[in-house]
Amino acid sequence: xxxxxxxxxxxxxxxxxxxxxxxxxxxxxxxxxxxxxxxxxxxxxxxxxxxxxxxxxxxxxxxxxxxxxxxxxxxxxxxxxxxxxxxxxxxxxxxxxxxxxxxxxxxxxxxxxxxxxxxxxxxxxxxxxxxxxxxxxxxxxxxxxxxxxxxxxxxxxxxxxxxxxxxxxxxxxxxxxxxxxxxxxxxxxxxxxxxxxxxxxxxxxxxxxxxxxxxxxxxxxxxxxxxxxxxxxxxxxxxxxxxxxxxxxxxxxxxxxxxxxxxxxxxxxxxxxxxxxxxxxxxxxxxxxxxxxxxxxxxxxxxxxxxxxxx
Amino acid sequence: xxxxxxxxxxxxxxxxxxxxxxxxxxxxxxxxxxxxxxxxxxxxxxxxxxxxxxxxxxxxxxxxxxxxxxxxxxxxxxxxxxxxxxxxxxxxxxxxxxxxxxxxxxxxxxxxxxxxxxxxxxxxxxxxxxxxxxxxxxxxxxxxxxxxxxxxxxxxxxxxxxxxxxxxxxxxxxxxxxxxxxxxxxxxxxxxxxxxxxxxxxxxxxxxxxxxxxxxxxxxxxxxxxxxxxxxxxxxxxxxxxxxxxxxx
Lengths: 311, 249
Known about the structure:
Oligomer: heterodimer
Number of strands of chain A: 10
Radius of gyration of chain A: 26 Å
């Protein structure tokens, strides 16, 4: 038998793992990554002559729940046209049985890599605001993400923010009828736990029923992750979002992002009750011009009175 | 016994059902049991030998005896009867069996000499010894990883041989040659498809298609072997994920 060196073995393993795109419009370029749901490849769309990304489930997994989940993900994303959600171009099955979908090739960094280079809390919070916009949009279409974490967020070179990996997303019951079938393809059975510890709401971890407030919890965990510098106000906002009971959290992603936006604008936030001195300081900070005018008037008036008294 | 190190030919073609190999290896019919075990032996004898040499620091001759004894016990169903696929992967189970057997031998300070009773397998220990010299591991830190990598090496080596035979039988030698050039030999991977096309008198698109064919066939052979050597659908998929792609150490 041929002896295979370590490098030959690695090449063969990668070669055997390369999807068979020979009879498709796609030509493989390289592998971008490997996740629990399969590999993501950079490929050339030879018809449109552009690079796209293919997410592919291996043939031996394609007939399983993973294959169904990939199709589910593609169909969910296809319903969510938003600048913060990566668009899907194509979905199907390769000649060797692998299930795949083609999507826009996202250039950029994962959130956890990206924010390590950002020192300003304000910059980080602006990114957080964009994440909230995408998730809030999905909620308005009746879709929960259920696996929000830094590894599932991409930040592009022009500051664009994309929420990825909708593989375990869930369509809420009240929109299932509107979702015309495919969106309701793969509900998660009661008692099934899918998600990421640390970013997953407690009720999700227990396999209980979840609603949009599970995503509010995950966003709170994400905010905590991004709160390097430990702002007390942002800490209070993330704590409220991550409350144990869903009823104690923000009622919506919009409410959460509004609090963060208020913090950035120097306005009071609902999660952080302020003392009267803090409120006074905030008022003074926002009305500096008026304060200076009043102060100048008072000084002039005092000087005038003293001058009159001295006369 | 014929060449025990070869897994080509129809002998390896077990039905692709769950448990096929394990069930067959436990069969009361000696012929069926032996056919199943040939596949297991072909996939595992080199990893077992190398593992005994490095993990247990055994001399060449002693490692040969221990390897023979291990597979003799396997043939007699001594180990596999205890295998519970719900509790462990077959690969892990076999490695633990090796550890127990060698450990017990050491404790007893003597090895059971079976003499004429033991079935001696025709295994090419010299090639295994030669391969050991090429492995750059003075003292492998994680022997579980070492065993897994040697097993993967053996699976792919056997698959390459099988692919060569298949391609020759179908008149597709050039398909195999392209895979060998790009994925087995050092230096070939840097060649462009245009360069290779010129060298072989092909169109660049033929290079793409031929290579895709050979890689697809290789994957099919590897997965077929794997299916035979795993005891459940779940184990099969986990092993496939680790064997193909990036998860193997």
